[in-house]
Amino acid sequence: MSALPAGRAATPAPPPFSPAPATGRRRRRPALGAHLLLVPATVGILVGLGYPLARQLVLSFQEYGLAQQFGRPAEWVGLDNYTTLLSDPYVWAVIGRSIAFCLVNALLTMAIGMALAVLMARVGRAARMTLQVSMLLAWGTPVLATMTVWQWLFDSQYGVVNWLLAEPLGMEGMRYHSWLIEPLSFYAVATVVVVWMSVPFVVFTVYAGLLQVPAETMEAAQLDGANAWQRFRLVTVPMVKPVLFVVLLLQVIWDLRVFTQIYVLQRAGAPTRETHLLGTYIYSLAKEFSMAGAMATIMLVLTLALTAFYIRRMLRQEEDL
């Protein structure tokens, strides 16, 4: 092998072969594939939710009852069903009760759930596991089984609640008190049941959000002189605010549409007309499909109106990010 001439550098080796950049058609394939992956879910949503919603909307503009179930053509009545419902003072009373019940239950559920989530984040491992197992049991118990237990607890003759109020606390007037006869005590029992069944979801969700708060941030706030309440209010809450917004939004939707708990308590002996909420009132209109569809559409509009503020807030937060 002969040596290279003096002062002449070695020729660098050619770079390894690299494929040519993908064409525009190939670059579009990943985006097209991602959209194709959404097709099954979109079809499922349209079939499972879109068709019933469209059918409900059409029925609300028709005169559709039991006769139409046996072949009689449905008559188009336009806005008559909505006019009939919205001109009835009782419908507005049901709407007002439903909104009040929804807001009270949502706020109580959020307050108790946040308190238990903070407690779960600060206690030891054994206490935390006990709380988690208790929450899972309360959350996983079927609704009807839970309602059976609560009916027994508030039973007028053999209920544990009446016995505790009468014997240890000396409230003899509560010994045979019927909690379901009066609307106010009926809603108190319903609130206890609904909140008790909703708190575990809030606890686990908020607890997961609390675990994402950096410990360094809390230590820095403590070094700056912030006490425990100030750290929670000024540091923890703003950092988990997106989680709180989503949970509160879901609670408002669920509590406005509550049905099973109210229906079971009504069947236990409560006066139905004085204790109807939107869900049970729509069910009572089952023989008049068109009126039930119109009332369900009003309920949908009301739900969207109550949640519009929170939806706007979440969209703004996503845009800021």
TrEMBL record:
<keyword id="KW-0812">Transmembrane</keyword>
<comment type="similarity">
    <text>Belongs to the binding-protein-dependent transport system permease family.</text>
</comment>
<feature type="region of interest" description="Disordered">
    <location>
        <begin position="1"/>
        <end position="25"/>
    </location>
</feature>
<feature type="transmembrane region" description="Helical">
    <location>
        <begin position="90"/>
        <end position="121"/>
    </location>
</feature>
<protein>
    <submittedName>
        <fullName>Sugar ABC transporter permease</fullName>
    </submittedName>
</protein>
<keyword id="KW-0813">Transport</keyword>
<keyword id="KW-1133">Transmembrane helix</keyword>
<dbReference type="InterPro" id="IPR050809">
    <property type="entry name" value="UgpAE/MalFG_permease"/>
</dbReference>
<feature type="transmembrane region" description="Helical">
    <location>
        <begin position="289"/>
        <end position="311"/>
    </location>
</feature>
<dbReference type="InterPro" id="IPR035906">
    <property type="entry name" value="MetI-like_sf"/>
</dbReference>
<feature type="transmembrane region" description="Helical">
    <location>
        <begin position="232"/>
        <end position="254"/>
    </location>
</feature>
<dbReference type="GO" id="GO:0005886">
    <property type="term" value="C:plasma membrane"/>
</dbReference>
<dbReference type="InterPro" id="IPR000515">
    <property type="entry name" value="MetI-like"/>
</dbReference>
<feature type="domain" description="ABC transmembrane type-1">
    <location>
        <begin position="95"/>
        <end position="310"/>
    </location>
</feature>
<keyword id="KW-1003">Cell membrane</keyword>
<feature type="transmembrane region" description="Helical">
    <location>
        <begin position="133"/>
        <end position="153"/>
    </location>
</feature>
<dbReference type="GO" id="GO:0055085">
    <property type="term" value="P:transmembrane transport"/>
</dbReference>
<feature type="compositionally biased region" description="Low complexity">
    <location>
        <begin position="1"/>
        <end position="11"/>
    </location>
</feature>
<dbReference type="Pfam" id="PF00528">
    <property type="entry name" value="BPD_transp_1"/>
</dbReference>
<feature type="transmembrane region" description="Helical">
    <location>
        <begin position="32"/>
        <end position="54"/>
    </location>
</feature>
<keyword id="KW-0472">Membrane</keyword>
<feature type="transmembrane region" description="Helical">
    <location>
        <begin position="184"/>
        <end position="211"/>
    </location>
</feature>
